[in-house]
Sequence to fold (283 residues):
Amino acid sequence: MTEKRKITVGEFHTEYINHREGTVANSTATADDLALRKFTAHLPDGHRTPMQRVRPRDGDTFMSRCSKSGLKATSTTNHYRHLHKAFAVAKLWEYVESNPFAEVQPPRIHKAPPLFIPMDKIGAVLAGIEDFDKRMLMTAFYATGRRRCELLNLKWSDIDMEQRQYRVHVSKVHRDMVMPISQLFYDVLIEQRMFYGHMEKVFPRWKNPDSVTHWVKQELIKGGYPHLHLHHLRHSFASAYVGVGGDIFTLSNLLTHSNVNTTQIYTHVTPGRLAKEVNKVTI
Fold:
């Protein structure tokens, strides 16, 4: 190997994170950093370990250690994904001859159906929110199924009320997409425009995304759903859509999933819907 490739895990860690910052979401770069730090601490020689000496066994023992420490399978698998990506880049940069995580198996995850607020209950939850701005934003989350940053960053310049569509920057895939405006979301936009149409953002009151997550949780507790949080409004939108007969492929586009397999979690539907669907087959 050339001299350039003879670097340590610690040196690669620094170079890789510098490379990722600015090219991926901040949360992704943070998860990259956390996974590499934990894996580096697991190695006998720590950050001084030469990249060429990292083996699949190191990955296997790290996964085992995470599981035995009580870390949730989802968190362990998340570390695996970020480490697999990191060492794939290391191989591309010729720091390693092969990806040591290519042969490592992450823990199996039991995927339970997503939790959500039933469509016939969501109205009461929203109606119980006294603060008008909070009620409008929570309604918008439910009406669109958008991720937190996608809705909080929405600007009036992204909205076409006449064509009833809006442009959203999808953080997961780093591109803009045009989405239809439903009647429920249209009603929210009409209200918002009356009060905030002169401002840049559609929901200008909320400067701190984490504060939104906090107060949404409080409103859900008050509404009788203490086990749910902000992201479950996205699940509620998706579950309502499937529950009234919407198809998975269209839902995948509406949620801007990069792979329709991700959307399959919403095929749980309700027992009543299943009974109705199965009776479509007759002789």
